[in-house]
Amino acid sequence: MFLKVSLYISLVIFLIALIYKVSTWFRYKIGIGSEEISTSARFFSAIKGILSTIFSTKILTLLKVFVLDVLLQFRILREDSLRWVMHIFIYGGFMLLLLMHALDKYITIAIWKNYYSTINPFMFLRDLFGAMVIVGVILAIYRRFILKVPRMFSNAMDIYAILIVAVIMLSGIFLEATKMVAYSDYKRMVDEYSGLSDSQELKSLEAYWVKEFGVVSPKLKGPFDEVILQKGKELHQSSCEGCHARPQWAFTGYGVAKIISPIGLGIDRARLPSVLWTIHILACFVSLAYLPFSKMFHIFASSISLLANGVIGKEKLSPANRATLQAMELDACTHCGTCSLRCSVIMAFEEITNMNIFPSEKIASIRTLASGRELSPREIRHIQEGVYLCTNCYRCTVVCPVGINLQDLWFNIRETLLQKGYPEFLVLSPLSFYRGLMKEETVQRDYENPLIQARGAIAAQCDLMKKKDKVLPLTPTNRKLQSGLSLSAQAKTFSVCFGCQTCTTVCPVVGNYENPQEVLGLLPHQIMHAAGLGLRDLAFGSNMLWDCLTCYQCQEQCPQGVCVTDVLYELKNLAVKQVREKTLQPMERK
Ligand code: HEC
Ligand code: SF4
Ligand code: SF4
Ligand code: SF4
Ligand code: SF4
Q: What angle do CA 555, 468, 573 make, to 5 degrees?
């Protein structure tokens, strides 16, 4: 009764949560272009996509991905063989236990008519699968906490996942062991199956079970007489053997039973088997009910992600399906850290200590963002900096064992966040090649937005700039500002500039425009001059500063040995630093 009720309750919770979770795949808006698509349009578009895949030759690819990547998890094997062993043990063992042991009433019995959990091969297999999971869990703990695989971060979800599996497994093994030693279980069985009443016979059978099966009897203790054991064996063979393989086959339970047998009577008196049974069952139900909210949900989401990305390949998805796929991929991430291990910009973390630089942590933040939770501008800025520091190198996408197209996700999120209007100064870096984003999918006006915003944010901080994106002409020297310009000795060489314009003449950026001053504001020689006059803010407002390619042509050609490029570089850094300090609190150090 208790069992049934709690099973139904957890099943209902599980189903509701599952439906809720899956619905978020169609509701969460990720990336530009997803805002206007309705949930129902996304749902039907997905159904259409699935059907057209199933009824085409792509079904073969789907099968291949299912066997190689979902079942055998080759993508994990390719990256890290220890992790593969760990994962296949936990996942394989757990699935087999679920099918053979937890669902035995529906599956195992349907296949083998005379199934009993106490006969072989079932008894041995149950312990084997259980041992696999335990070994896997030990490996998982070892990797996370002892080996400390670099760049793998453990959050509460990861620990919960390990914990719940460990509780289920350990309670199961201890349950098996305590039942083996518990005298009342033995007694119940004898009453039910032996049909014996003769006390001598009962004693023989008991002696045999104490010796061979590890039962702890309140009256009988070995060593026993050979004749009694022989008699016991015969009785066992006639009443019990059909349903009971030798207990050694259940090697984990039997091992524990041997260890706990000195306190066997106490265990039985305390009814420990039923306590453990309750813990075991409840742990299973709780994990079932909580599954859609936990990391374990990746069992579903990752499989779907692998299959979907397996058939999609390089194809272009409709905006509706892409939004759905990306929402699902957020659930598919197992927080395994492989992507962070391979990410090419991780060195930046040493300097900036923003966790969102790590792709594995970025995806966790994006999940929060997509769920619509209110984030502070500072949190959003951190995410933005993280996605913007990415170089689009594709390494994370290639190695992700669940096949998430991280690259696409970063593109999309970057685009969305930049359009929200938070200035991101990294777009001003020549290395950003202005944006390197999805030019073809963004409206021209929107595409320019982030750049204008970032420049504007810097210009707005400059006292002399009254208008954000206009550059003021040269103004008379402002001596007060001169002291504020703290440049390195190398950059201070601007003071010997005599205004020959060679730098400007050789600059390829200047040469690119018919009317360079209109576009760029101050030209290199003018910036040197402005710096000489102490007009720091004037220099900051110039587009030239941000459009410079750092090609060093000017610096090489300058007859006065002015380090033109270095000056531009330092001015740029000063400008960003100044705005950062005014508008943002320092980045968190985690
Ligand atoms: C019809 C099959 C069947 C027969 C016959 C049978 N048992 Fe069992 N026995 C089981 C099953 C199934 C379990 C495990 C489920 C449970 O505890 O009810 C079990 C459990 C036990 C346990 C608890 C330890 C454990 O491994 O779970 C003992 C002890 C036991 N049986 C003793 C006996 C003895 C002694 C006999 C012979 C008199 C006997 N059984 C005959 C099916 C049988
Ligand atoms: S694409 Fe970006 S996040 Fe991914 S590995 Fe490269 S730099 Fe890191
Ligand atoms: S994105 Fe992929 S590689 Fe990165 S943590 Fe998630 S599952 Fe692992
Ligand atoms: S080339 Fe040298 S001296 Fe001539 S304007 Fe440029 S910085 Fe000044
Ligand atoms: S370093 Fe910059 S300013 Fe100098 S020539 Fe190259 S692009 Fe022009």
A: 35
245 and 124 Cβ atoms separated by less than 8 Å = yes
Please give the sequence-ordered ranges of beta strands (E in DSSP) within 182-240, or none if there are none.
none
- Residue the block writes with tokens 């409840």: 282
Instruction: Identify the DSSP state of 466.
Output: S
Whole-model pTM: value is 0.75
d(CA 210, CA 192): 18
Helix (H, G, I), strand (E, B) or coil at 461: helix
Q: 463, 198, 430, 168: which is closest to 287 by C-alpha? A: 168
Contact predicate 14/291, CB 8 Å: yes
For domain 474-583, say whether CATH 3.40.50.1860 is its number: no
Instruction: Report in angstroms the alpha-carbon separations of 438 from 266, 328, 405, 426, 442.
Output: 70, 21, 15, 17, 6
For residue 147, what are the contacts with CB-CB under 8 A and spacing of at least 6? Answer: none
Which two structure tokens, joined as six digits, stand for 344?
């090419």
Q: Which residue's CA lies nearest to atom 4 of ligand 2?
A: 396
Domains in the chain: boundaries: 181-277, 474-583
The pLDDT tens digits for 251-261 are 999 999 889 88
505 ligand 4 Cβ < 6 A: no
Report how far Cα 202 is from the mean position of its chain's Cα atoms.
Answer: 59
Task: Please tell me the residue having the least CA distance from ligand 4 atom 8.
Answer: 497
Please indicate whether residue 22, judged by its CB atom, sits closer than 6 Å to ligand 3. no
Among 529, 557, 565, 571, which is best to mutate for testing ligand 5, by the most ligand atoms less than 8 A from CB? 565
What's the CA-to-centroid distance between 386 and ligand 2, angstroms? 10
Exposed, middle or buried by CB within 10 Å (0-12, 13-18, 19+), for 7? middle
Is residue 406 within 6 Å of ligand 3 at its C-beta?
Answer: yes
Q: What is the mean pLDDT of residues 526-548?
A: 77
- Is the pLDDT at 62 greater than 80? The verdict is yes
Structure tokens at 539: 């220099």
Instruction: Please report where in the chains the tokens 């502070």 appear, as a residue.
Output: 376
**CB neighbours of 525 closer than 8 A, spacing ≥ 6?**
497, 499, 500, 501, 502, 503, 504
- If one counts every other C-beta atom within 10 angstroms of the C-beta of residue 317, the result is 17
The answer, yes or no, to whether any atom of ligand 1 lies below 6 A from the CB of 215, is yes
